[in-house]
Specification:
The complex is a heterodimer. Chain A has 15 helices and nine strands. By secondary structure, chain A is an alpha/beta fold. In chain A, strand 6 and strand 7 form a beta hairpin. By secondary structure, chain B is α/β, with parallel strands linked by helices. Chain B starts with a strand and ends with a helix. The chains are: A alpha/beta, B alpha/beta. Chains A and B meet through helix 2, helix 5, helix 6, helix 9 and strand 9 of A and helix 2, helix 3, helix 4 and helix 8 of B.
Chain lengths: 290, 400
């Protein structure tokens, strides 16, 4: 079982500043061979976990982005219909069985993420992003694959897994997931990072951001999240904002309040929220974090 | 394994393992008692974790157990308290089901209604389905009496149904009506005949015998997802005469539509779908009366909607959702807030219908300031004071 600290430092090397609990979750994933379900608000860095994990294991990241109406053919495999039609024309006059064997062979099969993930020699990280957007039917099907790790293709037979991928699922909670899927997975709720961790994330990801500025930015973003906003800024927004401030050569937020206000467009993404954060509100928040 | 630095011998180790196994079994039982779905595989994985280094510090074991045993945020938030209470002997704070609330008290109006219903369902009347669909009731006489009574109360304002039998009957009918409506809505969904796509794989199979010419196109039906209904019910004092019947209507709706969600509001908002999933309507009402509170404490519709928009909207609303608000619109909060929150709600769903029992009254004008602020954002403002008015909703709900 990889140790918690080993994982935390490995993820840090991959540019992801994890808290202790998440490191524990990842070590449990390896030890208990269960998928990990990450739930949390948009922009807290759920997807980044999978990317860092692939770096950590030095393996491929295979991503399946879910959406409403996602079905097996786009998630698992698809036959190359155009080539099949051409092949049927080319083999005119042959017996139907022979043609069938020919056109439903490996040559005409197109891998989609799920099939690709179980056919890798080295276990990849399989990221199933926003599983809550897919429908219940697909969820049930996914559950089957996650417990069997083999896929049956009617025309080809059963494809067993060459290796068992590290599976990470993310959900924004737009739909209630089934109990069966939840129980199959380890669960970790990803919250917005604490200010000191967010400051470390800024330092790790934005070159040129000194520690004093990072701490200021992290506390400021924290204060903005506490305001009653429609869209609270996520970690990605924080990083954009930090990069903008560093690019504008801001050393200290207190020195350039007008620049702070102008660059808020990196953080605030709706008109109402923009209207709510009037200059005097921003100045009040800055006074708090000084 | 060591204890206080001294290695344990074999026998001691076994004793410790056995003790831990017993303790773990008790802990999983505690979790099950607290509504965690803990299966055998979780329990055996937890036992494996007890043999690793995680045991050295309670905090690491706790976070490992938390990730293993929890399956949703509500459990995630409660787990540490339960763990500490069980393993470390700390006191656990009790939680209430009402969001933002302290302790729910019993609401007299709902309580008496649920009692009346319980009595009513013991003197059971027969099953009635809406709008002249086939009745499957057994013997003629009872049915006739029931049916004629129903005709008699169909158009009567719920306020005027005073005797317990009539009220119980109205409850039954409301519930059956909701079920029938729901079933018809689904059926209508199935009959929509647009959105075919070609099922390529099957078409190719068919084309092999014809030299690759796809003579027979195999079609794939586009699946229709049913309209999702979200019900927000005003349970304040001014609505008490109607709440019982509405709740039965909603109970029927939820019973037939697993994807529907229901909320009660008065001075606060309570998510009641789970309580309403009780098969037995009387028990469901009982559970609700435990949640409902603040009758006569005024209604803060704006605040409750704000709560709904913040806490629940993202999860329960989608582009195919229809929100039904059962309320008389008497709001003791700020009208401007109600307007804003209605606007926010409007952006998140397909349609909003405001069902107002007062509209059935002669000479009623919607002049309450809260209602005035809300109505511009509403697609339908309709009466809901009698069985007939509830039945009239069906065509509107079935239209997507």
């Amino acid at each position: 079982m990889p140790t918690r600290d080993g994982i935390a430092s490995g993820l840090a090397a991959a540019g992801y500043v994890a808290d202790g609990e998440l490191a524990t979750a990842i070590s449990l994933m390896a030890y208990l061979k269960r998928p990990l379900l990450l739930e949390g608000e948009a922009g807290v860095g759920k997807t980044a976990v999978a990317a860092a994990l692939a770096d950590f294991y030095d393996t491929k990241l295979i991503r399946l982005q879910c959406y409403e109406g996602l079905d097996q053919s786009s998630a698992l495999y698809e036959w190359n219909y155009q080539r099949q039609l051409l092949a049927i024309q080319a083999h005119q006059g042959k017996a139907a069985d022979a043609i069938e064997d020919e056109i439903f062979s490996e040559k005409y099969l197109m891998e989609r993420p799920l099939l690709a993930a179980i056919r890798q020699e080295k276990p990849p990280v399989l990221l199933i992003d926003e599983i809550d957007r897919a429908d219940e039917e697909f969820e049930a099907y996914l559950l089957e694959i996650l417990s069997e790790f083999q896929v049956s293709i009617p025309e080809l037979g059963t494809v067993p897994a060459k290796s068992i991928p590290h599976v990470v699922l993310t959900s924004n909670g737009t739909r209630e997931l089934s109990d069966a899927l939840r129980r199959r997975c380890l669960y970790h709720y990803v919250d917005y990072p604490e200010p000191d961790r967010e400051a470390r994330i800024i330092q790790a990801r934005v070159s040129g951001s000194g520690s004093a500025l990072s701490v200021q930015i992290a506390h400021m973003v924290q204060a903005i999240r506490k305001e009653d906003l429609r869209k609270r800024p996520g970690v990605a927004e924080t990083l954009d904002w930090a990069a903008a401030l560093v690019g504008l050569d801001v050393q200290n937020l207190q020195d350039k309040p007008e620049l702070v206000h102008e660059t808020l467009l990196c953080l605030i993404k709706t008109r109402e929220d923009r209207a709510r954060l009037r200059p005097e509100v921003v100045n009040r928040l800055m006074g708090k974090v000084a | 394994m060591t204890c206080c630095g001294t290695p344990l011998d074999r026998q001691e180790q076994d004793a410790v393992s056995e003790l831990l196994a017993t303790k773990l079994a008790a802990f999983t039982r505690t979790l099950r008692d607290n509504a965690f779905a803990v299966g055998l595989s979780e329990a055996s994985d937890a036992a494996r974790l007890l043999t690793t280094d995680l045991v050295r510090r309670p905090a690491t074991l706790r976070s490992a157990f938390r990730q293993l045993f929890c399956a949703r945020k509500a459990e995630w938030d409660r787990f540490d308290g339960l763990f500490d209470a069980f393993w470390l002997g700390k006191r656990v704070r009790s939680r209430s089901l009402v969001s933002g609330g302290t302790q729910p008290q019993n609401s007299p109006s709902l309580k008496s209604l649920s009692d009346a219903t319980a009595k009513g369902s013991q003197e059971a009347t027969d099953q009635v389905s809406a709008e002249g669909e086939d009745n499957h009731a057994a013997d003629g006489e009872g049915r006739m009496e029931g049916a004629s009574r129903i005709d008699a109360i169909n158009g009567v304002d719920f306020r005027k149904l005073s005797n317990p039998q009539d009220l119980a009957l109205a409850h039954e009918v409301a519930e059956n009506l909701a079920r029938a409506m729901r079933i018809r809505m689904t059926r209508r969904d199935l009959e929509r005949r647009d959105g075919y796509r070609i099922h390529l794989r099957r078409t190719i199979h068919k084309a092999i015998g014809q030299g690759g010419v796809p003579m027979h196109l195999v079609m794939r039906r586009k699946r229709e997802r049913p309209l999702k209904i979200v019900l927000l019910v005003d349970a304040s004092g001014s609505m008490s005469l109607y709440t019982g019947v509405f709740l039965r209507f909603i109970h029927g709706m939820l019973d037939a539509a697993p994807e529907a969600e229901a909320f009660l509001f008065h001075t606060r908002l309570a998510h009641v779908s789970d309580a309403m999933k009780e098969r037995d309507a009387a028990r469901a009402l009982d559970r609700l009366s435990m949640m409902a509170q603040g009758a006569g404490g005024g209604t803060k519709i704006g605040e409750c909607l704000a709560d709904f928009n913040r806490q629940h909207a993202a999860r329960v609303l989608g582009s195919r959702s229809c929100v039904l608000i059962f309320s008389d619109g008497y709001d003791t909060g700020e009208p401007s807030q109600l307007g804003e929150e209605m606007q926010a709600l409007r952006r998140r769903c397909r349609r909003i219908a405001w069902l107002n029992p007062m509209m059935g009254w002669d000479g009623y004008e919607p002049v309450a300031r809260g209602l005035q602020a809300a109505l511009p954002h509403v697609d339908l403002h309709a009466p809901a004071h009698s069985l007939q008015s509830l039945a009239d909703l069906e065509p509107y709900l079935a239209r997507l």
